[in-house]
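Narrative of activities, Objective 1.

The group set out to show that a structural description can be obtained from nothing but a protein's sequence at a throughput compatible with the screening campaign. Below is one input-output pair from the validation batch, recorded exactly as produced.
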Amino acid sequence: MKHVTERPFANPEAAARQLVQLASGIGAVQDGRILIEKINYPFLYTLKGSGAEFGAGIKSAVERGWFDLHESGTYVRLLTPGKDLLAKA
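Output recorded for this entry:
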């Protein structure tokens, strides 16, 4: 019998909030750009999130207006509502 533990980022909103928090701690490269691998690595390897949870979190953050994802998928920008989210936390 396998015991399955609750995944902390199974909820896309929880994953999105964590991604916004990670992005806020990273210096933007140019014009507010945050390279996707700068938030991908800590989410997957430090926080032990899955690739599906990362994708759902990015999608949720974009839908909520917290991130602007470039069409190439190589970087995001933290938008004002995402910054407001950090002030409330």
